[in-house]
């Protein structure tokens, strides 16, 4: 039977049929929930009317995009979105690497296992819950932080009217929630490094710090680049759940906290225009796709093993 099949693709399909069957549910899930909804992109070019439906609504060309790009809002939210995600990626990668290396150097014991459990716990706490707790810290009159500042004679901060304090707050909150889980991923990669390399370095007189910079970090390069590329895919995502849970619809903070996702969410609730919000989302997706492809191309030229495709 295999000899009769001339097509290389069909031969591979027959030979690995059980592996393809295992992958089939994931493929079907992706098609139904990721690719079929892409048909809705046409709404960005329509004055969409739910009653008329997807194909009978009036086509208006690029008018939905003109509405978005006409003012200065798109520059502000694009800048905020890219800035926050770059800070999240940079600080998250650095902190996760630091935690992973520190815990690996401490060896395997009860303290390390306890620390690992504590580190990944914030990852399983939803942002709305974090937002509820944050009120007790940032409230102007009764907040924990202002109470502490008053007790040491320092001036209080009105967090919910001062937009400039929120970029570092959001970065720290993201670190608290995600760095621990990221460290577990890097720890798994570190465990896979050949121990004989460390033993050889120790025999040659290398210190722990030298082993980290000469062995651990170079061996993690492909993992770091791969995770960076995966993170870059969401660089135009605005972290709606985090920002909206912590800030909400606060107009005082919009200049520093408004991102593409929060803008789309607010526009959908206030204007009700599905066409304009879909146009913004399409802009977000296209630019994010271009960034991932470009970064992957650069990574492939620098190191072929680091590219995703």
From TrEMBL:
Bilayer topology term: Multi-pass membrane protein
Pfam families per UniProt: BPD_transp_1 (PF00528)
Keyword Transmembrane attributed: yes
Keyword Membrane applies: yes
CDD domains, per the entry: TM_PBP2
Compartment(s): Cell membrane
ABC transmembrane type-1 domain: residues covered: 78-295
Regions that span the bilayer: 20-45, 82-103, 124-149, 169-191, 212-236, 280-299
Family of this protein: Belongs to the binding-protein-dependent transport system permease family.
Official protein name in the record: Sugar ABC transporter permease
Organism name: Paenibacillus glycanilyticus
